[in-house]
Amino acid sequence: MILINTLSLTPNVRSWLQNSRQTRILHVFDHACNLINERGEILSVVAQKIENGPFNLVIEDGILFSGRLSVQSPISIQANQLHIGDLVIHTADAKLWSPRPDWEDLHRKREIILTQLAKLQIANYQFSNSLASNLSLALTNADIGTVKAIASQLAGLGQGLTPSGDDIILGAILAAWIIHPLDIAVDIAKEITNTAAPLTTSLSAAWLRSAGNGEAGALWHEFFATLLDMNTLHAQASMDKILAVGETSGADALAGFIGTLISYAERETKLCHS
């Protein structure tokens, strides 16, 4: 047995550990292992280098999951312990991390965010997909009917565990939390998530549901903070970290996020000149 300490986890992970009865391994990678329970809920055990996420249980670096586990490895959950294969993960002393940014504050400071984005090198994150562009426009106008129709076409579009269409939707949802007041953002996020999540992979659906609940990974938290700090170099570096996620996942999510904010800025400019 190898004993491992948990560095941090989220309320979602704590609930998963307390309420899961039938569990199995969904994916095994070098530095991450995704588990799924009887309700289709995901828990990701990840190395520290991957950082916090809405359903991440973060452990110390040093374990190569692909060398020790397979999808057939047994799982058991005890008080403050998660057993996966020969790994015994202690959770009692883990720090609790909140995946929800302060959307109210980000909404109040949306003009600062738009000003900062205009200074960044974002040309490579523009849309090449008319569906994505139309989604941004519909989100900007809070046109929920059109948002749902487009989301149903984008969901699951592309290859991989998180298809490109889903990543675009995720970024666009995060932008919606910023451009709209909280009550409107909640409704939009709920509707788009309920539409898209059933149409894609289990892992991608988990990310979409997290965004629909107003949750985001640590890299997005850092990006938002640097945008508010008005430090262009830090914001560019933070954005580049998101870009480096997956083969195209980060770039697609940034396209959804930036495209929606640009659409919002263009609408506000037209309103001011009308």
What number of domains? 2
Q: Bin the strand percentage.
A: 15-25%
Number of strands: 9
Q: What oligomeric assembly is this protein in?
A: single chain
* Tally of DSSP helical segments: 12
H/E topology pattern: EHEEEEHEEEEHHHHHHHHHH
**Structural class designation:** alpha/beta
Radius of gyration, CA atoms, in whole angstroms: 19 Å
Overall pLDDT confidence: 94
Shape verdict: globular
Q: Give the distance, in angstroms, between the N- and C-terminal Cα atoms.
A: 69 Å
Q: Quick one: biggest sheet? A: 9 strands, mixed
Measured as a percent range, the helix fraction is 40-55%
Poorly predicted spans:
none
Highlighted features:
nine-stranded mixed β-sheet; about 270 residues; 2 domains; alpha/beta
Give an overview of the whole structure.
The protein is an alpha/beta fold and 274 residues long. It folds into two domains: 95 residues, no CATH class; 171 residues, no CATH class. Helices cover 51% and strands 16% of the residues. Strands 1, 2, 3, 4, 5, 6, 7, 8 and 9 form a nine-stranded mixed β-sheet that branches. Strand 6 and strand 7 form a beta hairpin. The radius of gyration is 19 Å and the shape is globular.
